[in-house]
Design goal:
The complex is a heterotrimer. By secondary structure, chain A is mainly alpha-helical. Chain A has four helices and no strands. The longest helix of chain A is centred in the first third of the chain and has 16 residues. The radius of gyration of chain A is 13 Å and the shape is globular. The chains are: A mainly alpha, B alpha/beta, C alpha/beta.
């Protein structure tokens, strides 16, 4: 799955959690300022992204990660980095 | 303090319409809310029928917004409350300046959300349950969500007493205003149609026709009755301190004069206790309203087709009401049983009956039990001038509530 | 003059004791009721502890109704009700049935019953759902079963306002008595442990891994718990007539709604402030008069901070002179039972002149700088005690109890 597909899927997750049209979710949209999302919605998006992309982020790290998830691009980067990290050998 | 409590607006969403007039007309025209269910499969329930609000969408009532945080129960509640606020002239600006309360009666809250949340945890693992759904797994979720949606910062309470819930909610709200603790609040109830509750009733043999070999009859008081039919909806009234309403120049529809409540501790097993508990609630309501039973012009019954409960209610009413002459309306004959929302629906429709001087009676009834055969006088719509009305709501296990209303449209 | 309402009996089912005496002794000694969760498998979770009531048996308490088809919260409630009546010196057979009612609160009702339903669905055995599901699951059966067990025909109410439910139920019962609708009320709350509740809080990253540390700098969250508390409420004149022990008088209460967020409080604590102010106004007292506050104190970063802010807004300088402790440090969060247990705690604090501690308090948080009665209980005259509770849905309750002085 390339970055474009990841971005598309993530936008669909956001759309499902918010009823915002995918077309209205820009790559650099800020969750709080542009999309007006509250903390619960943001958590749900993070959980759904984890589920779909099988990131397996431990709960202990999730809180920390959420602090750095401010834009759509941040969540795309999270998935891309996690996958490339998994591809790296021991 | 003993302030007068008046109704200045009402709202309803049901399978028979989304305004008090529309629902009332549908009932008088003999329409039934019951039909095939599309929300879920009823294969396990022998295809039992129910009252479903087909293709319900919140957008027509609330605008184009993000509805993900609200589940069906929350959406029905917010939509019906919107109409209630609009009908009583309570604008957003007024709600920002005043503390408007919300008292919600519900039997189950968002039961479908609770079950789906749990099932996802079982199938995908607890790590992947949905945070937004968790917020709706508390029984008072719809009340909290609707308060956020409509800026309702007064007392926010949820009452869950089964089928009597929204009439108990009205009584609770009435007490808050009467005592001076609140000036204005929205009171009513919601329950959604969902697989979990309907199947639960089916498994218990409580749904009409769920005993094999019998064809379903959920007509209240009818001699052929063999259970009830589940339904859904939301109904609310705007209650205000009378002086407050007068000062803001709004017309008042009805006054809540008094209530009585109690519990059949035999939970339906002992007729003497069951009838006594119901009769006591009715008598206390009359006393609270400072009326005698012969002043009641119409009764709105709780009856839903349940073999025993309909009988207990009839026997309790017989103790004080002249059922030969006083009209009885039983709206569940047309609407089905919307559980926690039913009491509020009864009140909204009683107010319509007052306006139109008409009782919609007990639609589809043909013959009643010999012990209360005079209820057959209510097979048709009956013209009736209503000054005082009695609304009665009783849950399946015997949680009783009776409320007395007065028609004050001429004040 | 309004009817005065007093508390004459207290019954409790908790993870640190069943019955008033054992509970009070343990709460004063700072005993923790937190342990490894046993009622379901937590291996797929990142947290594993909670405040379960272990070893509870309904046998001695559920005598008149069929215990086979009633849920756990109902069993707790019946036990607490019987214990409260016994504590009040009222024999169940002597109760005036028509004039005695029940008013209760809960968060989830009987979640174990819907869990059984879901187990059937997920195992593709939906047709195995119990015929008793619909008469054991709905939350109003908790108050209903208490009435059925004790043959009570009076007003019967279930108010599921989540974490503030106990306070809502007790204040409603007071109103019922003041309006002459009953001569005695059993009021309180009950909730049982469940995987639904545990999963939800775990998913919100709200559960502490090891212990609940309200107001502590390093607090890591709340701890789900379970239990029940019921009190006997009577009009003062009837209590005096029968020579009852009077633990405390209900002086006033306040209810409000934030209308802001479903699971988080208002950032400035507006709703919490209104509830406290209403309670103070109704009881004719000022913040200076309050000798003890039983906090909502869940142990989450957010609640404990906002609660501290709210208390300071109402109490101003007096906040620093008013001990405020959280028994959730010991019991965890017992949901709908919590504010009912806390009302019992306030009554006992007033009656005995003792204040329970906030245990697990290790490092002060500069943003939470009040006197949280760290780790050790205190002997102190308590004439007025306030209990605060803040619920999902943004609904808030404050209850004030005062010493009966004639």
């Amino acid at each position: 799955m390339d970055t474009t597909e990841i971005r598309t899927q993530i936008k669909e997750v956001i759309a499902n959690a918010t009823s915002i049209d995918v077309a209205d979710i820009a790559d650099n949209s800020s969750f709080e300022d542009d999309l007006g999302l509250d903390s619960l919605t943001l958590l749900e998006i993070a959980v759904d992204v984890d589920h779909i992309f099988k990131l397996n982020i431990p709960d202990e790290e999730l809180s920390e990660r959420l602090q750095h998830l401010r834009t759509v691009q941040d969540s795309v980067d999270l998935v891309v980095n996690h996958r490339s990290h998994k591809n790296v050998g021991v | 303090m003993n302030r007068r409590v008046v109704v200045t607006g009402a709202g309803i969403i049901s399978p028979l319409g989304d305004s008090p007039q529309a629902v009332f007309s549908s009932i008088c025209e003999g329409r039934s809310a019951l039909g095939d269910v599309t929300l879920f499969s009823t294969d396990l329930m022998d295809g039992a029928q129910a009252g479903e609000i087909k293709d319900f969408l919140p957008q027509p009532y609330l605008g184009k917004k993000n509805f993900r945080p609200l589940d069906r129960t929350g959406r029905l509640t917010a939509a019906a409350v919107q109409m209630t606020l609009d009908n009583s002239g309570w604008t957003v600006e007024m709600r920002e300046e005043n503390l408007v309360g919300l008292i919600l009666g519900t039997m189950f809250g968002g039961l479908h959300t609770i079950a789906e949340f749990d099932r996802l945890g079982l199938t995908a693992g607890p790590k992947f349950v949905k945070p937004l759904d968790f917020a709706n797994t508390v029984i008072n979720a719809a009340s909290g969500q609707t308060a956020i949606w409509h800026t309702l910062r007064g007392v926010n309470s949820t009452i869950s007493t089964g089928g009597s819930a929204s009439l108990q909610a009205l009584a609770y709200g009435m007490d808050l205003i009467r005592s001076g603790r609140s000036d204005v609040l929205v009171s009513g109830g919601t329950d959604e149609l969902c697989f979990e509750s309907m199947y639960g009733f089916y498994r218990a043999g409580m749904l009409a026709g769920s005993i094999s070999g019998q064809s379903a009859c959920s007509t209240p008081f009818d001699i052929q009755r063999n259970g009830f039919a589940t339904s859904e909806g939301a109904a609310f009234t705007l209650l205000e301190d009378h002086q407050f309403a007068v000062d803001r120049g709004v017309s008042t529809q009805a006054e809540i004069l008094g209530y009585g409540s109690g519990y059949d501790y035999s939970q339906g097993k002992d007729e003497n206790i069951a009838v006594k508990a119901r009769a006591q609630a009715i008598q206390v309501a009359l006393n609270d309203a400072r009326l005698t039973a012969d002043q009641i012009d119409i009764v709105s019954a709780s009856a839903n087709g349940s073999k025993l409960n309909d009988r207990y209610e009839a026997m309790a009413l017989l103790r004080c009401i002249d059922l030969e002459n006083v009209p009885v309306m039983a709206v569940k004959s047309s609407l089905g049983d919307s559980l926690g929302a039913s009491g509020a629906m009864q009140v909204v429709l009683l107010i319509e009956a007052m306006k139109q001087s008409l009782s919609p009676g007990i639609q589809t009834m043909s013959k009643a039990d010999p012990d209360f055969s005079m209820l057959e006088n209510n097979i048709q719509n009956r013209p009736v001038e209503i000054r005082y009305a009695l609304a009665n709501a009783v849950s399946a296990d015997g949680n009783c509530c009776a409320v007395v209303l007065k028609n004050i449209s001429d004040e | 003059m309004d009817t005065r309402v007093v508390i004459t009996g207290i019954g409790l089912v908790t993870s640190i004791g069943i019955g008033r005496e054992m509970f009070w002794e343990n709460v004063l000694s700072g005993k923790s009721g937190i342990s490894e969760v046993e009622s379901f498998d937590t291996s797929a979770y990142s947290v594993h502890k909670g405040g379960e009531v272990k070893g509870f048996s309904h046998g001695p308490f559920v005598k008149n109704i069929d215990s086979g088809h009633i849920g756990r919260a109902s069993q707790f409630a019946i036990a607490a009700a019987r214990l409260a009546l016994e504590d009040a010196g009222v024999a169940p057979d002597d109760i005036n049935r028509e004039a005695t009612g029940v008013s209760m609160g809960t968060t989830s009702g009987e979640p174990n019953q819907i869990e059984l339903f879901d187990d059937c669905c997920v195992a593709d055995e939906t047709n195995q759902v119990s015929p008793y599901f619909i008469s054991s699951y709905p939350c109003h059966y908790i108050a209903g079963h208490v009435a059925a067990e004790l043959s009570l025909m009076g007003s019967n109410m279930m108010i599921p306002t989540a974490c503030a439910a106990g306070s809502f139920a007790i204040s409603h019962a007071c109103d019922i008595l003041r309006n002459g609708r009953a001569q005695m009320m059993l009021a309180g709350g009950a909730d049982s442990f469940s995987r639904i509740t545990y999963s939800g809080f775990a998913r919100l990253l709200a559960i502490a891994p090891d212990k609940c540390q309200p107001f502590d700098k390093n607090r890591k969250g709340m701890m789900p718990g379970e239990g029940s508390s019921m009190v006997v409420l009577e009009p003062l004149d009837l209590a005096l007539e029968r020579g009852a022990t009077i633990y405390a008088e209900v002086a006033g209460y306040g209810l409000s709604c934030d209308a802001f967020h479903m699971t988080g409080g208002h950032p400035k604590g507006d709703g919490a402030v209104r509830a406290m102010e209403q309670a103070l106004a109704e009881s004719g007292t000022s913040p200076d008069d309050i000798d003890y506050i039983s906090a909502h104190g869940t142990g989450t970063k957010s609640n404990d901070f906002h609660e501290t802010v709210s208390v300071k807004r109402v109490f101003n300088k007096a906040a620093y002179d008013t001990p405020i402790s959280s028994i959730k440090s010991m019991l965890g969060h017992t949901m709908g039972a919590a504010s009912a247990i806390e009302a019992a705690v306030c009554s006992l604090a007033v009656y005995y002149g003792q204040i329970p501690p906030t245990i697990n308090y290790e490092e002060p948080d500069p943003d939470c700088d009040l006197d949280y009665v760290p780790n050790e209980s205190r002997q102190q005259k308590v004439r007025l005690a306030m209990s605060n509770a803040y619920a999902f849905g943004g609904t808030n309750a404050s209850l004030i109890l005062k010493a009966y002085e004639g």
